[in-house]
Design brief:
Length: 361
């Protein structure tokens, strides 16, 4: 019997698998397709991402250094409120390459990573879990002490183990213009309901346009209008769900969720790569597969690290729906040089940031 069967080889699943294997656990990862595909993510991340990636892969994954964001209340021609720093705040990276790199690192650490295996059923028993998957050789059953649902926003493990859904889902749409762009600013447009639209320069990989709204809120028409407004020639398109939460419980009798399955995302950007990997490390360190009662330690550990950031993230997001005159005042007050960490909204309210604000008079 395995210690852990991990469903999904996205960043959260692969990171968990690597960390657990490094702790000496017997780990099997089942991924339904080819690792990293299909793409449905901007791969715009804080520099912390490099702590999770072997040094040798860095140059291959890096696309562009971002020093700040220009916020707009309208479309392309509207006034910009810049937030910036001399040093890079974030990077645009190759997201498909990131997933492949993290899966390889899990494999190198001793995890058994198998692609083209779709998990169709999960049954929690008193002393074990049976995971059924459809693979190239037909249907297979795997016995494990614990199952890890790292299977994204529409998690099958979450459903099968009767765990609660996140509070909300947003629908994100992306498209790419292949013309290279090495600018140092992303553009953020508070011009769609409850969330925002964005433009990310990705160096030689071109420019990405995207937006997220509630499902059914006319995302395709809004996306077309946004790209037309920029005069962008967007060819490739993709889309995906962004869970916002988190749910009250992400552990079952012999199951745990990590990453998007557990809505470990930033409510104000939808980003989940770093939060998911940070939570995955907590799970690997705290959960002993021979003692399912340690699942509670994981709940405590990840929430104590991310709870405050997620709560503040909800507060920042509420600002996207405020009346325009209030937004204008807020953007004017906060824009300029900043010392914030993009994964930690608490730094927006830090003593240094408030001191900087006051010193501008
Ligand atoms: C439009 C958009 C833009 C985004 N941009 C950013 C960004 O710039 N920065 C950022 O940090 N985050 C971003 N995100 C969020 C980010 O993509 C997710 O938070 C992140 O991918 C979560 O990682 P994960 O490993 O939990 O899940 P996923 O990356 O979704 O991985 C889940 C894996 O599970 C597999 N799987 C699913 N079901 C099964 C099954 N039954 N059997 C086997 N395998 C299965 C899937 O194939 C997939 O490989 C964006 C999301 C969207 C939709």
């Amino acid at each position: 019997m395995r210690d852990f069967v991990v469903v999904g080889a996205g960043p959260a699943g692969s990171r968990f698998a690597r960390s657990a294997a490094e702790c000496g656990r017997d780990v099997l990862v089942l991924e339904q397709g080819e690792v990293g595909k299909p793409l449905a993510c901007s791969g715009h991340v804080s520099l912390d991402v490099w702590e999770y990636v072997p040094d040798a892969a860095r140059d291959e994954l890096f696309q562009n250094a971002i020093h700040g964001a220009r916020f707009h209340l309208g479309d392309a021609d509207s006034r910009a409120y810049p937030f910036y720093r001399d040093d890079p705040i974030s990077n645009a990276i190759d997201r498909v390459g990131l997933d492949k790199t993290l899966a390889r690192a899990a494999s190198d650490a001793g995890a058994d990573v198998r692609d083209r295996h779709t998990v169709t059923r999960v049954e929690e028993h008193r002393d074990s879990v049976t995971v059924t998957a459809r693979g190239p050789d037909g249907t297979e059953r795997f016995e494990t002490r614990l199952v890890v649902g790292a299977d994204g926003p529409r998690s099958r493990v979450r459903d099968q183990c009767g765990l609660p859904e996140p509070d909300e889902f947003l629908h994100g749409v992306l498209g790419f213009d292949p013309d290279p762009d090495h600018q140092e600013f992303v553009d953020v447009h508070l011009s769609v309901p409850t969330f925002f639209a964005w433009r990310i320069p990705r160096g030689e990989a071109g420019v990405e346009y995207g937006l997220a709204v509630r499902p059914g809120d006319d995302e395709r028409a809004r996306f077309r209008a946004f790209c037309d407004d920029y005069g962008a020639d967007v060819d490739e398109r993709c889309s995906g769900l962004i869970p916002v939460g988190p749910p009250k419980r992400v552990t079952g009798r012999r199951s745990l969720l990590v990453g998007d399955a557990a809505a470990q995302t930033k409510p104000f950007t939808g980003g989940g790569i770093l939060y998911g990997m940070r939570a995955a490390d907590h799970a690997a360190r705290t959960v002993d597969p021979a003692r399912p009662e340690t699942l509670g330690d994981y709940e405590d550990a990840w929430r104590s690290e991310l709870r405050r950031e997620q709560q503040l993230g909800h507060l920042v997001r509420a600002g996207y729906s405020m009346p325009e005159p209030v937004q204008r005042v807020g953007l004017r007050a906060f824009s300029g040089e900043i010392g914030v960490h993009m994964d930690e909204p608490s730094t927006l309210f830090s003593r240094e940031q408030l001191k900087a604000l006051l010193s501008w008079g």
